[in-house]
Amino acid sequence: MTKLPTHTEKKLGLVIDLDTCVGCHGCVTSCKGWNTQNYGAPLSDIDAYGADPHGTFLNRVFNYEVQPADGGASQTIHFPKSCLHCEDAPCVTVCPTGASYKRVADGIVLVNEDRCMGCGLCAWACPYGARELDEAAGIMKKCTLCVDRIYNENLPEEDREPACVRTCPAGARHFGDLGDPDSDVSKLVAERGGMDLMPEQGTKPVNQYLPPRPKDTLDKMPPAALETIAEEAKGFLGWLDKALEKL
Amino acid sequence: MHPAPSVIIFTTISGLGFGYFMWLGLGIPDLYGWEAFAAFFVAYAFSVGGLLASTFHLANPKNAIYSFSQWQTSWLSREGVLSVIALIVFAIYAIGRIFFDTAMPLLGYLGAALAILTVFSTSMIYTQLKTVPRWNMPINPVLFLLYAISGGALLSMQPIVAAVLLIVLTALQIAGWMMGDKRLAESGSTKGTATGLNTIGQVRLFESAHTTRNYILDEMVHIVGRKHSQKLRMIAVAAIGVIPVLLLLLLPQSLIVTLIALASHVIGVFASRWLFFAEAEHVVGLYYNRG
Amino acid sequence: MTKPENIQIETSPPVSDEVRKTTCYMCACRCGINVHMKDGQVAYIEGNRDHPVNQGVLCGKGSSGIMQQYAPSRLRAPLKRVGPRGSGEFEEISWEEALDIAVSWLEPIRQSDPKKLAFFTGRDQSQSFTSFWAQNFGTPNYAAHGGFCSVNMAAGGIYTMGGAFWEFGQPDWERTKLFVLFGVAEDHDSNPIKMGIGKMKGHGGKVMGINPIRSGYNAVADDWVGITPGTDGLLILSIIHELFRAGKVDLDYLRRYTNAGFLVNEAEGPEKGLFVRDEDGKPLVVDQKTGKAAAFDKPGVIANLAASQDGNRTVFQLMAEKYMSDEYAPEAVAERCGLTATRIRNIAAEFARVAFEEEISLDVEWTDWKGEKHDKMIGRPISFHSMRGISAHSNGFQTARALHVLQILLGSVEVPGGFRFKPPYPKPPEAHPKPHAGVTPGKPLDGPHLGYVMGPEGLLINDDGSAKRIDKAYTWENPFSAHGLMHMVISNAHAGDPYKIDTLFLYMANMAWNSSMNTAETMRMLTDKDENGDYVIPHIIYSDAYSSETVAYADLVLPDTTYLERHDCISLLDRPICEAEAAADSIRWPVVEPDRDVRNFQTVLVQLANKMNLPGFTGDDGAAKWEDYADYIQNHERRPGVGPLAGWRGKDGTKSGRGEANPNQIQAYIDNGGFWIGHIPEEGQFYKPWNKAYQDWAVEIGLYDSPLFYAFNLYVEPLRKMQLAAEGHGDIQPPDNLRERIKRTMDPLPIWYEPFENTNVDIEEFDVHALTQRPMQMYHSWGTQNAWLRQITGKNYMYLPKAIWEKHGFKEGDYARITSVHGSIVVPVALHDGLNDHTIWTWNAIGKRKGAWALDEKAPEATEGFLLNHLIHELQPPKGDGMRWSNSDPVTGQAAWFDLRVKIEKADPKPDESQPVFPPIKSPVGKGPKIVARKI
To answer: Under DSSP, is residue C903 helix (H, G, I), strand (E, B) or coil?
Structure first.
């Protein structure tokens, strides 16, 4: 049913910290591993060892450079990107078969693979490139927010979070209910000025990105200059004598 | 966007088919018997052929049947539903004309309306996408409809009407391109908004996520050279409008002339549809493109 | 139509049949992993939350392990070469035949001249075992890959303070406020650094990255210092200059715990520059209270740094004199470093601010080495980390020394918030073995191969000055080569210099491709024949789990298992997984049985040893002691009660550290998730080299047999001893052509000199530095044949800074010719803004030989991917004296990869493929499947 729910009970999503993501691709491959074994068709790799390898990934880490407007050194920023589980998910409403839907209980956007005809229109409608049509299965694949982990009673409670969050070594990925202003993720977003990607698209993404903290401040806001106690070794010895006395 | 042959053929041919249906539904020309059969055969061949071509775009066609279910929200579903209803309505209408020498004008008008709505739905599949700013503008449905109606006019052998429509179409198409060229910039989406890093400064892609291609790149990140597209636009303008109009207005009216004009027009539509897809910048390219 | 709220999906699917916990080996980091099994197959791999190294997290490599397990490039059976070397033509043979062939080559040389075997291992993590094998075989020619990796950092650290980074120690992530990285984009210490950076940033801490390239960790660094390659030492010494100038050094720390207060003999003669010692040979200090000279470690004595006696001053005064000189002033060094003087000043001020103004204090009582009780632990919350970026230069040893000295001057080593050792470190150089090369046919070597030389008497040279080892380690060319020189083995063996060998035995080292400098020439040497038509290197045995480039150059290939199919121990005898708070070790065990005719390489070594009845492997009754590696792990005792694994020792498994062998020890590890951990008592957590509680604990668990108190070496006396020899003192004398270099480079206090390449080539012509890094998702791993990882990085570009990009008018898709004094490559280029203006770089080891790794010959790795190695020679260009010295650090022999200078020009027209191109090798394992979509 491709009508978006007017209200979801929760807004589960990710908060991604661009200040700490070191770009290790741990989230990329743990996602690939979990989602190949679990929800729906496996994520295939075509020509896997050949001249033109290409496969399906639900999460990819880009690497951007930003030239600060104030003329400072260029910054390098690792940028993981997966489905943002938008409140106004355009991918859902365009779906002709009812395969795409947004869950009322938690806001997760899913594809019902038994319905998907592989037309690709949902991927066209997504500004973020979050949906990939699996070439082997002919099915549209996307981040499920590990819906088969987060409620999975076969997993220990501490593991009931998306695979990418569980694996992230730098702690740059957080999972929670962004609809609850008191949740840890909501507080983090408030504190760090979390942002929407392409807000002008009107998708109201649930996932939030924490911007990098200000960088290269050393020369702009330098520490107090060191005071000279001696210019050469002789003067230094005099200072040293006194300093040792005081210890 | 990837100019996939399936979608180019689909939109071109089915547009012609439904455009022709519209005229037939209005009773222009007013045909019966074998003549009606031939006309409806052509209209069905184009419209159904186009729809069939579109299924080649499906990676999992076995679930295509579900595509009639989401007419409340999905333009693609609406198009499917409308096209089927239109084809059924025209089936009854055509049977009347072919076998019973009977025109059922009300049914014809209904069919014509459905044909137009079908083409409109097709256009809305693209126009609705905010992600493709070049498509996301009101002139696109107008163009789709004009393409259908003018192509249908050619098929229904109305040289003067066709010529007038083609002049309007050609002018609007040129306007459409010019408006389209500005759309990405007007959309407000930039690498900066895509990454949220515009608050720091100028953003450029350093390393793409993977060095290999992927579905997103194949499907949505297609770059045409500016020179190439200018050349194709000129060819399209000539073939869609200039040549057919000159033929229709300057030469004595004849079936041959109309058919040549039609052939030129169809070639032009293919070119313009190729451009429609190939020139359409999807905002996801902001994540992937260097420069 | 079902409404979204009514769609039923399975949210609690069964995850797996069983979870088996073992240790990752996708790189050298040794994280704990949970391997989820379904139907007896590996289904999913995630981090083990209980594991001390990774605490549940896992990086991009580790999470891709499943694709390594099922890689088509896995070797399937022992191979015997049937075509010419390098062709890749093999036939599969049985293990019996393979072992017999190996023994037929090895046993005769063992009985006649064991040094004719050169046994070198690459990314080996079982060096305490492989060296034990080599020692019992009797060859001196053994080492692992440290010589071309990071020996400068390791040796610089051991000589200075008894440990370096990574497995030697780590920042106090909980408390550190400024973490400074020199030249590290990614590292061996993969997940702990990632976790640490995340943690400290969460506490409001900051990261400073000093690196020509802003990538990896330098991308998340709060401040980036885009230094010019090879000048880190100069920057550090300038920072030290600033700290001295401002008196911002930790005097109390220095006088108590370091040799800053040692008196240095300043009288001309054979003792000049050595410490003034008492009758017991103990270095003397002048006691602050009594003003009298006393042994440095005498209880109650605190050194007076300002003292002098008989014209002999303290180390600290020599340092002040040296580093306060204008030569190290920020203005004097800034341009060479590619920085401004202001920035250098700000860095120094920031270091001093964090160390001294953000001092932290823990209310923990402890007792020091002189019996003095302290009620607090004072911390300086600045910590450092560095590895290859500094190491892989010809001035790397001294630069590493400078960095360690900087940490010590700030008083931030082994204190809260600073850098902390991980057991069995700290361990000073004198506590390490000395290197040995005493060969007796048919008998074991006279001691361990590798260790720490304390003076000219420790060198491994014959009376005529020739080298005892094939790699010329521990010679005057590189006296402190603590890890050997793997990068010189093939070249020396080919040249027969210092002697010819018979069998080259390599393990897990891709020497015919990305692990060698001068790759094309290495391939030629491996295939070169003598006048009789015989190969110059007569026999080559290679063990690898995968169809790497080097496989093609072996006469006999011994296929190893994958990491999920093997036993291993990550041992306290070797390179353990300890944390700063605890000793820890771990195992691997076969969580899945091999489906091919392959064997764990270490088991193969046991089997070879047993066939040859190697001493050490054979009991007094003549019977083999162990049947396989697991048997060795469980039952070998290196010293009485101390074996490869420290956990669950004793017959009943109740002892830790010391205890007799336990027949169920491996099972006990498996039951505990694959690892053992033993915590250091709270009062022993810091100040380890001088902390009684720590030392007592270390003795108790068997790290050593009596407490090992020592002072940090700001001044390294063994270096001075080498200089003295070069000045003509003593019986053991360097060759004349090396005297000046030894005098210059083996300064007992850290110095900086131009990387050799800078003085060997015309730097006006070769005006650019060229570097490599490994991508984070492939660091120290074998990623190419991994279907997931190769999609992330399946080709590499030469990254150029904007200045060079614009100067040559490069556009996207262009190729450039990159030329060094040695060679030339033509490769694709791309722009990188976050880059030092005089530096270009690329991802290392992405380029692959056609036909290797079970990849298609048209794979992007083989057509567009490239190696920088072709530009780097293992020797420096000829000198005036006609000698070609090794392209290595003159102290340790560390390969100077990062000294490379090049020039760059646009390649027009651009080639079809990156150049050079080598003919394909025949894949011994065929090619991989077209589509992979493996769901169990």
So the answer is: strand
pLDDT at A24 over 90: yes
CATH number, domain A12-210: 3.30.70.20
| Cα(B104)–Cα(C775) distance, integer angstroms | 72
Handedness of CA C798, C804, C808, C809 (dihedral sign): positive
Domain regions of chain A by residue span: 12-210
Pick the CATH number of C761-875+900-906 from 2.120.10.30, 2.40.40.20, 3.30.70.360, 1.10.10.10: 2.40.40.20
Closest by Cα among A221, A224, A239 to C245: A239
**Which residues does B232 contact at the CB level (< 8 Å), separation at least 6?**
B271, B274, B275
Q: Residue type at C496?
A: G
Contact B11, B273 (CB under 8 A): yes
Kindly tell me if the per-residue pLDDT of C1 is higher than 60. no
The per-residue b/e assignment along B60-83, b for 16 or more CB within 10 angstroms, e otherwise, is: beebbebbebbbebbbbbbbbbbb
pLDDT tens figures, C864-894: 999 999 999 988 888 766 778 889 999 999 9
Longest dimension (CA), chain B: 74
Q: What is the C-alpha to C-alpha distance for residues C752 and C384, in angstroms, rounded to an integer?
A: 19
Quick one: average pLDDT of C205-219? 97
Q: Is the pLDDT of residue B222 over 90?
A: no
Across chain C, mean pLDDT equals 96
Secondary structure (H, E, C), C267-319: CCCCCCCCECECCCCCEEEEECCCCCEEECCCCCCCECCCCEECCEEEHHHHH
Interchain contact C673–A (C-beta under 8 A): no
- Rounded to two decimals, the pTM is 0.96
Q: How confident is the model at residue C338 (pLDDT cuts 50, 70, 90)?
A: very high
- Asked if the peptide bond before residue B29 counts as cis, ω within 30 degrees of 0, the response is yes
Find the closest chain B residue to C813 by CA distance.
B290
Residues of chain C with CATH 2.40.40.20: 761-875+900-906
Quick count: other Cβ atoms within 10 Å of Cβ A224? 10
Q: Which positions 116-155 of A are in contact with C (Cβ < 8 Å)?
A: 136-137, 147-148, 150-155
pLDDT digits (tens, 9 = 90+) for C496-550: 999 999 999 999 999 999 999 999 999 999 999 999 999 999 999 999 999 999 9
Query: B-chain residues within 8 Å CB-CB of A94?
Result: 73-76, 125, 128-129
Contact predicate A192/A200, CB 8 Å: no
SS (H, E, C) chain B: CCCCHHHHHHHHHHHHHHHHHHHHHCCCCCCCHHHHHHHHHHHHHHHHHHHHHHHCCCCCHHHHHHHHCCCCCCHHHHHHHHHHHHHHHHHHHHHHHHHCCCCCHHHHHHHHHHHHHHHHHHHHHHHCCCCCCCCCCCHHHHHHHHHHHHHHHHHCCCHHHHHHHHHHHHHHHHHHHHHHHHHHHHHCCCHHHHHCHHHCEEEEEEECCCCCCCHHHHHHCCCCCHHHHHHHHHHHHHHHHHHHHHHHHHCCCCHHHHHHHHHHHHHHHHHHHHHHHHCCCCCCHHHHCCC
* CA-angle at C828, arms to C827 and C830, nearest 5°: 135
C782 — pLDDT class (breaks 50, 70, 90): low
Question: Thinking of the domain C79-148+432-564, which architecture would CATH place it in?
Answer: 3-Layer(aba) Sandwich (3.40)
Subunit contact B193:A117, Cβ cutoff 8 A: no
Chain C residues touching B70 at Cβ < 8 A: 1
CA B108 to chain centre: 23
Q: Do B212 and C860 lie within an 8 Å CB cutoff? A: yes
Within chain C, all domains assigned CATH 3.40.50.740 are found at 79-148+432-564
